[in-house]
Amino acid sequence: MNQEEMAAALNTTVNTLGKWIKDDMPVAQAGGLGKAYILRLSHCWAWKQARDVGERQRRDHNANQISMLQAQFLGLDRENPLAALSAKERAALAAADIQHSRAMQLRRQLVQLDDVVDLMESVFAIVRDKIEAMPDVLERELSLKPEAVGQVQRIGSDLLSALVERIEEAELRERNVPDVEVQKQWLI
What we know:
By secondary structure, the protein is mainly α. The chain is built from 7 helices and no strands. Helix 5 (113-142) runs antiparallel to helix 6.
């Protein structure tokens, strides 16, 4: 076959075929000044298929390397299905998650962490203040003796200590809440 026939058989242009010949496409007889190239379809077809497979493998390898780098950059495990998603797909998922969260918040099924922290801190402050004031109130209103007041004070102190220990067990002291010192944010 000549170059025009081979280009038609491989569904490409004569110029591309010329580049492939320079890239070591098998030629039965080299052409040149006034002399036509002679090409064998079976040899050229096999060379093109091998070339296409090699390009596909390189492309897949590069895509895999990019995917691994993106997963590492995003802190995702390669086994995580999100690691295989493109940036556009991850952005679409993130947007859908944000819309879902907003809808849940509007339905009062989702509460902001700051709101919960503020509520818990105010509730614990009330509990602490009332328990600390309880011995004086009981002494005044029930005419308790100093020994009984001491017992009430120890009981209140034990209660506050138990609450603090339970909160620390739940690792709430490690929560990152802006503008609040870690040791004081859950102090009762």
